[in-house]
Automatic annotation (TrEMBL), chain A:
<feature type="domain" description="GTP cyclohydrolase I">
    <location>
        <begin position="50"/>
        <end position="222"/>
    </location>
</feature>
<dbReference type="InterPro" id="IPR020602">
    <property type="entry name" value="GTP_CycHdrlase_I_dom"/>
</dbReference>
<dbReference type="GO" id="GO:0006729">
    <property type="term" value="P:tetrahydrobiopterin biosynthetic process"/>
</dbReference>
<comment type="pathway">
    <text>Cofactor biosynthesis; 7,8-dihydroneopterin triphosphate biosynthesis; 7,8-dihydroneopterin triphosphate from GTP: step 1/1.</text>
</comment>
<comment type="similarity">
    <text>Belongs to the GTP cyclohydrolase I family.</text>
</comment>
<dbReference type="GO" id="GO:0008270">
    <property type="term" value="F:zinc ion binding"/>
</dbReference>
<dbReference type="GO" id="GO:0003934">
    <property type="term" value="F:GTP cyclohydrolase I activity"/>
</dbReference>
<keyword id="KW-0547">Nucleotide-binding</keyword>
<dbReference type="Pfam" id="PF01227">
    <property type="entry name" value="GTP_cyclohydroI"/>
</dbReference>
TrEMBL record, chain B:
<dbReference type="Pfam" id="PF01227">
    <property type="entry name" value="GTP_cyclohydroI"/>
</dbReference>
<comment type="similarity">
    <text>Belongs to the GTP cyclohydrolase I family.</text>
</comment>
<dbReference type="GO" id="GO:0005737">
    <property type="term" value="C:cytoplasm"/>
</dbReference>
<dbReference type="InterPro" id="IPR001474">
    <property type="entry name" value="GTP_CycHdrlase_I"/>
</dbReference>
<keyword id="KW-0479">Metal-binding</keyword>
<keyword id="KW-0021">Allosteric enzyme</keyword>
<feature type="region of interest" description="Disordered">
    <location>
        <begin position="1"/>
        <end position="62"/>
    </location>
</feature>
<dbReference type="GO" id="GO:0008270">
    <property type="term" value="F:zinc ion binding"/>
</dbReference>
<dbReference type="GO" id="GO:0003934">
    <property type="term" value="F:GTP cyclohydrolase I activity"/>
</dbReference>
Amino acid sequence: MNAHCDTVEEFQCNNGFSDLIIDTKKSAVHRKHETSRKEDEDESRLPALEAAYTNILRHLGEDTHREGLLRTPLRAAKAIQFLTKGYHETIEDILNNAIFDEDHDEMVIVKDIDMFSLCEHHLVPFFGKVHIGYIPNKKVVGLSKLVIFFFFFFLVQERLTKQIAVGIHEALQPKGVAVVIEAAHMCMVMRGVQKMNSRTVTSAMLGVYLEDPKTREEFLTLSQRA
Amino acid sequence: MDHSKHSRNTSTDKKDSGDTGGSVLNGHFDGMVTRAPGGTGRSSAAPAAEPGSRVAAAGVMESWRDERTRSVEDNEMSLPSLAAAYTTILRGLGEDPQRQGLLKTPWRAATAMQFFTKGYQEKIIDVLNDAIFDEDHDEMVIVKDIDMFSMCEHHLVPIFGRVHIGYLPNKRVLGLSKLARIVEIYSRRLQVQERLTKQIAVAITEALQPTGVGVVIEATHMCMVMRGVQKMNSKTVTSTMLGVFREDPKTRDEFLTLIRS
């Protein structure tokens, strides 16, 4: 893993990436190794999660024995395990067979990828669309497969944007990557300020998208078009 | 429009409203837990204790008036336990609750959840008491596109959508924002969309005794979108028509057309 990091760092220094990105890359790598989770662990942790949810229901003033709520702790525990399943997957598993050699060096854009995740501050969903563009450097990847991996964690939108960009970058070493995410945060819509129509837009540009305004403009135009 | 001349007798059904409203209303109260310490000493309205029985009309009226099961003090007292439960959940999912982004998350999540279920703290009677006016108006009144946010009681995941309400007053009208407040009280709970629709319709009926009430809810269920079948664009539509909205197709049509436009 360390050798891989060095090569990537070199690549980045030579290609106009800033230091900030390297730090984020490290945190992305760090995330893969920290408290990871296996599938069989999920099963064994279910009772504790169920008990926690039963507690929550009681303390909200509900009657956990009424028909509609009888199996809710189990369902809620499974639901939240599903929504955070990224913790027990690794990016190597996802990518193993999905990188191909192609002699293509024009921009590739995948847009309107629906995204759903939980915000790490309130554990409340936020959802929106992800638009990704990259200029391959002899390697292309099954992009949606890679991107979806990043959704299933407790997230902060800014960090997600960066993780996707860096993830693609690490997998493919392309000439440039651009990621734009536009999302609605239920923590803002359903509570707090309660602003129904506000959207948060974040973006990450790496490589040639950072350096060349024309490339960036082309990506932004193409991804915004309906 | 000849709907106003229609049979008055259906509008006076406070409880049944022409369908098997009794058992559904009981379902409506199934989740209400009476809390002895903060209770108002209402012995008759202990619906959780009589799940199968048909509550008399008077009992339903009282229940409608005295529904609060939680107080602000209860909220404060429950907060530490809720936060502890959320910490357990974070740990059980493989996260590190000590990292910077998650440090105060259990508290934030607990407060957020209490906000999402704040309907349990409010009573219809408090909201409506002052805003019922005598007006000699017998044409349809519609308030539409009321944004609604609720929590699915099966997965504890948000539901959001829009509520459209129409009613035909019978000498009494309701302050318009009170319709939105009724929606808030019932939607900010652990809900099932069908039940929510019925509760709103019944509350308006009981408050005003109008000639008819129609409620339509169109919502997106995150439990279907984010997990399970993962159908992004599907919407669930439920409706409740009471009184003349149920009896007279023309009235119903008019209501449905007006909420579409």
